[in-house]
Amino acid sequence: MNTYNDYIKEIEERKIQGLHPKPIDGAELLSEIIAQIKDLDNEYREDSLNFFIYNTIPGTTSAAGEKAKFLKEIILGESVVKEITPAFAFELLSHMKGGPSIEVLLDLALGNDVAIAKEAAKVLKTQVYLYEADTNSLVEAFKNNNEIAREILESYAQAEFFTKLPEVADEIKVVTYIAGEGDISTDLLSPGNQAHSRSDRELHGKCMISPEAQEEIKALQAQHPDKSVMLIAEKGTMGVGSSRMSGVNNVALWTGKQASPYVPFVNFAPIVAGTNGISPIFLTTVDVTGGIGLDLKNWVKKLDENGDPVRNESGDPILEEAYSVATGTVLTINIKEKKLYNGDKELIDISKAFTPQKMEFIKAGGSYAIVFGKKLQTFAAKVLGIDPPLVFAPSKEISHEGQGLTAVEKIFNRNAVGTTPCKVLHAGSDVRVEVNIVGSQDTTGLMTAQELESMAATVISPIVDGAYQSGCHTASVWDKKAQANIPKLMKFMNDFGLITARDPKGVYHSMTDVIHKVLNDITVNEWAIIIGGDSHTRMSKGVAFGADSGTVALALATGEASMPIPESVKVTFKGDMKGYMDFRDVVHATQAQMLQKFGGENVFQGKIIEVHLGTLNADQAFTFTDWTAEMKAKASICISEDDTLIESLEIAKSRIQIMIDKGMDNATQVLKGLINIADKRIAEIKSGEKPALTPDANAKYFAEVVVDLDQIAEPMIADPDVNNIDVSKRYTHDTIRPLSFYGGDKKVDLGFIGSCMVHKGDMKILAQMLKNIEDQKGKVEFLAPLVVAPPTYNIVDELKAEGDWEVLQKYSGFEFDDNVPKAAARTEYENMLYLERPGCNLCMGNQEKASKGDTVIATSTRLFQGRVVEDSASKKGESLLSSTPVVVLSTILGRTPTIEEYKTAVEGINLTKFAPPHKLLIK
Questions:
Q1: Where's the Aconitase/3-isopropylmalate dehydratase large subunit alpha/beta/alpha domain (predicted)?
Q2: Best label site of 82, 363, 520, 607, fewest CB within 10 Å?
Q3: Residue 74, by phi and psi: left (phi above 0), alpha (psi -120 to 50) or beta?
Q4: How is 434-458 classified by DSSP, letter by letter?
Q5: 750, 736, 744: which is closest to 878 by C-alpha?
């Protein structure tokens, strides 16, 4: 009884934290609980029954296997439990969502006991998580004239698992709760520093917003028991920064509905809203849970008598409140009319939130059930030799005769499945697409593993060319939390079929490379679709979508994703880049010039940015495509010249070969297969058979932006503007300022060079600057700490081979040691250079952080409140984002430099250069 006693001890410890018993996922514990249920005199029998019925995780967990087996015994009469009748056993099986439960149900349905077979068939007709082994059993029985198998297949062909679900209510009453003013980062809903607890849903739920907010939500629920609480980003966008399934799970836990009475802490149907809508990647996550995301537009631009926006002293449009959504406001979401009401007053059209596809997600309780349901219906109809009846909303197919295709439209047309043959699809079409590359990162990976278990998936889809599980988000500190979670995650993913950063067998050296960099390398075809468990899944080859852990799981299990084809914004360049500027400044200037051109309106939001870089290889171009997450774009595509693409593919091949040489390939030789794909693509380009992807000359764009390089006269800094009098303007990535704004006297407390935004060239710039400064001043002295975290080990190896790492070592006061990794997060920094382990480090904010109240200047992507640096009692922490040379010089000086100091420091240094393509990149 050791396992059970340990569980009881854990329960008592959780009580102190105000938590319920942790849901059971292990076979050993549940086997002991079942034995106690069978023992009628056991003192723990009643508690064991409750744990078995109400507290066991379903899907493919080992505990689910034991539960399904015991329920089968009860149904067959081999075990008698008065509290669990055979009818109740069938009900419990119906809530177990695939895996062992489907195996048991099929065995009973195709068995010899007619009465039991019919009951099992009733349950099976409601299930959608069937895989090849399950469907093969049905097909074999059908071929042997099994009538039950025919009945089940006919039910699947009619999609009764969907049609017999209750219809969506005509209206939903909601009570509003303002979660924050301005853009709401998913860090508010699920803080990065609590990433270790995400798979423990109840515990993680305690970190949403604040304890005070949680009490306020509970008070609203008590006051309005018949209404749903709607979380709102007032004067901003909800869910920026990342998809963060854990954020949606937390919202659902506090405001949604319980998915099953027999599965604890899994809720669905959250309702979220924003004045400026929902971030695209976060909205996908809301769809996963059958939730609703509303674009409120409750603040509008004030117009003058000519209809032009009235602007304040800063040049920003002045907003007026169209209607109030103050906390406690009761509103009605009229789904039938697709309108939002306050009493009888119509406020706004919300039809975009209730497309036919989204209505299906809401009805089914989430998007997974629809994806699996469509596949199941297609399979059953094919076996029966019939055309599947039109049950689901047909794929939305938009085609404009005579109109060319943007790059993303071309990629979606190539990868689409289930669409009308030979029909050319344009933006706005809603399609299923095959996914080529999938990435899972370590702080969401545990949730992805849970999602795979819940949808009963056991092996990666053969459609996927390659998939990778990273260790970068927990690279900085190998603490007890990481030691408990990461090896378990790596084993699960390795067994599932992914290439993993850590070898569960311990043969190859652990890699903590930043996931986006690895995915950028293993994407070896610019026609690929990539899905990754992070908002910065933005490759410079192919089109990549950051996604929640569930969508990643779905892509791994099925090799597919469903989404609309987004509109594109075309970005081209003119002029000349000044010799003392870095390409990072071009990236920031793109955002600044776009906002200026469109009067403060972000035309990138929710769109594909089709950037015509052409002459930058994939490493350097990634700096642009990576930042498009902060531009609030849906994704980005880099249009490259033939020779540049070949160069990028050769770099990718060499790095994949390094992974193979380390022993990272698996039994199916995924990595070798990627090299073969790259070789084929290179041959196609060289022969002229299939040149590098370009849009059509007559493609249609939502907008076009031409970036004038001549206007970029000094380094650019993205500023969180933490003291802006307008709270909604703080912590956005839209405040881009020139270096001179700071007057050369803004104190800097810490610098950070690292994250996915830097490449090998940045590390070489750092080494060159240190040598330059020593030549100019006689020595290098840091007046602020400088933390450096290279993105990948291969960059470190290449720097060592080329002599640059030796330069960094010379000036550093700390260098990482993989043989003795840090066991605790650093809390204090000295004024010196730290060479940290490859990985995310400060950018992630879940392990390492700057000191509270610091002003940090960093190359990273995150400036959200509390992410890199938290506020102190007396000062707001702020994270300024800039180029590598600005960060280096700021830590040497302990302040932001003047433009003259900057020019002197970078004199003769090979910065990341860029020139617009010489030829027009349209074919």
A1: 410-894
A2: 82
A3: alpha
A4: E--EEEE-HHHHHHHHHHHHHTT--
A5: 750
Enumerate residues 6+ apart whose C-beta is below 8 A from 520: 539, 540, 541, 618, 619, 622, 652
CA atoms within 13 A on the CB side of 518: 31
CA–CA distances in Å: residue 560 to residues 375, 418, 441, 518, 556: 11, 11, 19, 21, 8
Instruction: Tell me which H or E stretch contains 856.
Output: strand 855-858
Q: Tokens 């809390």: give the residue.
A: 827
pLDDT at 921 over 50: no
- Per-residue DSSP letters for 49-88? HHHHHHSB--TTSHHHHHHHHHHHHHHHTSS-BTTB-HHH
Task: List the structure tokens of 909.
Answer: 């240094």
Q: b/e for 1-27, b at 16 or more Cβ within 10 A?
A: eeebeebeeeeeebeeeebebbbbbbb
Q: Which of 90, 61, 76, 72 is nearest to 34 (CA)?
A: 72
CA distance linking residue 885 with residue 879, whole number of Å: 16
**What is the sign of the dihedral through the CA atoms of 715, 720, 725 and 726?**
positive
Helices 132-143 & 100-109, crossing angle to 10 degrees?
10
- Residue pair 749/855 in contact (Cβ under 8 Å)? The answer is yes
State the Cα–Cα distance between residues 732 and 741, nearest whole angstrom: 18
Helix (H) or strand (E) holding 562: strand 560-564
Nearest partner of 594 among 576, 627, 569, judged by Cα? 569
- CB-based contacts of 661: which residues, under 8 Å, 6+ apart? none
Strand 430-434 relative to strand 416-417, pairing? antiparallel
State the helix-helix crossing angle for 367-384 and 356-364, rounded to 10 degrees: 100
Which of 661, 658, 672 has its CA nearest to residue 794?
Answer: 658
Per DSSP, the three-state class of 297 is coil
Note the residue count of the chain: 923
Cβ distance 163 to 131 under 8 Å?
Answer: no
Residue with tokens 């009570």, as numbered in its chain: 175
- Least confident among 12-21, 239-248, 388-397: 239-248
H/E stretch holding 738: strand 736-738
Which amino acid is residue 255, in one-letter code? T
- Helix (H) / strand (E) element for 341: namely strand 339-342
- Give the whole-angstrom CA distance, residue 589 versus residue 899: 17
> What tokens appear for 94 in the block?
């119906």
- CA distances for 849 relative to 58, 130, 866, 892, angstroms: 37, 44, 9, 20
Q: Do residues 461 and 524 touch, judged by C-beta distance below 8 A?
A: no
Cβ(885)–Cβ(904) below 8 Å = no
Of 626-630, 689-693, 742-746, where does mean pLDDT reach its minimum?
Answer: 626-630
Pairing, β 568-574 against β 703-708 = parallel
Please name which of 753, 807, 805, 739 lies closest in space to residue 784, comparing C-alpha atoms: 753
Share of the chain above pLDDT 90, in %: 80
Give the range among 230-234, 477-481, 849-853 with minimum mean pLDDT. 477-481
Q: What's the average model confidence in pLDDT over 772-777? A: 90
Cα(487)–Cα(191) distance, rounded to whole angstroms?
A: 23
Give 819-830 pLDDT, tens digit per residue.
Answer: 999 999 998 999
Residue 867 bridge partners (DSSP): none
Q: Which amino acid is at 281?
A: I
Cα 841 to Cα 447, 571, 810, distances in angstroms = 21, 31, 22
What does pTM read for this prediction? 0.85
92 φ/ψ angles, rounded to the nearest 5 degrees: -65, -40
> Taking all residues of the chain, what is their mean pLDDT, rounded to a whole number?
93
Q: What is the 3-state secondary structure (H, E, C) of 636-682?
A: EEEEECHHHHHHHHHHHHHHHHHHHHHCCCCCCCHHHHHHHHHHHHH
Report the alpha-carbon distance of residue 304 to residue 306 in Å, rounded: 5
Note the pLDDT of residue 738: 96
